[in-house]
Amino acid sequence: MISLSTFRVDVTPPIGSPLCGGWIAPVAGVTDPLYALGVVLLGDDAPVVLCALDWCEIRNEDHALWRERLGKAVGTGAERVAVQTVHQHNAPLTDLAAQRLVREQGMADLMDAGWAEGVVERVAEAAQKGLKEAQPVTHAGMGQARVAQVASNRRVLGPDGKVNGVRWSACQDAALRAAPEGLIDPMLRTISFWNGKQKLAALHTYATHPMSTYGDGLVNSDFAGQARERRTGEDGGALHLYFTGCAGDVTAGKYNDGAPENRAALAERLHAGMVASERQAERFPVDRLDWRVAPVTLPPREDLNEAALMKALANISDSEAKRKGAALYLAYLRRMGTPIPFTALHLGGKACLLHLPGEPLIEYQLYAQEQRPGGFVAVAGYGDCGTGYIPLAKHYAEGGYEPTAASVSPEAEEIMKRAIQGLVRA
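Now predict its structure.
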């Protein structure tokens, strides 16, 4: 028998806190709050925790801290906890190891460490308290629907097969916006949990960067959070979570020139996809959980080495943004002895929710779905984001932004695909 409890905690940063690792303006105000949302699934084995946060990223030992604290709070191991960020940019980015490196160099913080640790404790406490109100799960649901005019691939290729344009989340280049959508996954997928006719929770997944605009210091959950909150408010008490899929190279740039009204328009289209996905859902009995874990190490880029990164970190003539970037790379390089747990939840032999780290490019999501032809595979990216972008091997030759910003080497593709196979296949 399965039961489910939920938690919902405000995780909005205070005025003055760094956003997006300190690369953009700090918190000047709040347009709408940020939340940590989660479900705890209880069955014959140890509990499973699924958590989605309206933050930019959680990296390395900080991500391990979240999994450890949430697991301890509900009586399970860290390997049975999946924590993903939605990846809005007017939101915190946390990496305790990189923060220490930044402070050693006398730079401005990339995170509000004391406040962030307090957030972990509050979310863990809420998850523990929620156990008292756990309800039986009799059925699960799975549905999908096409979302129109939101996602587009930002890697615009030229006739030579090389990237000749980047379509950012807000793109004001008319020629780039006129280019085809490119490779995306147009489907929004939803897994829901039911006690008889009562919906307890719905988990939505869709692959796009979830920003319309950012960098103004006004904290907000952007169009993905707004669509989710609208769906929550109209659904009679069921908790709705939103997970960003393999969106490393996917943005709303084709359909967004940065005009303020576009945020509401994108939220409306995403909300319509959520409603349609639930309306088309197939419900099925479920009485057990299958939780799979694969510890994975993704090798760093060959040009990332300790000496060069320490030199870049200490270069006071360079910008703080570049020096903080070196700190983030160095934090990942130094955690090579600690694998990242890739995880997957299987329900009733029908639905699978796969959790991946970092910013995987869209091909990994499509590959995961190919592993179960005719099956239902929803994918959540943005777990441990120490990896940064995770391109395919061919992308390094094609150029563009993602391969140059990635922490991992081209060899990561084979390792990723092997892990995905083991986690997804029936």
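The longest helix spans residues 113-130.
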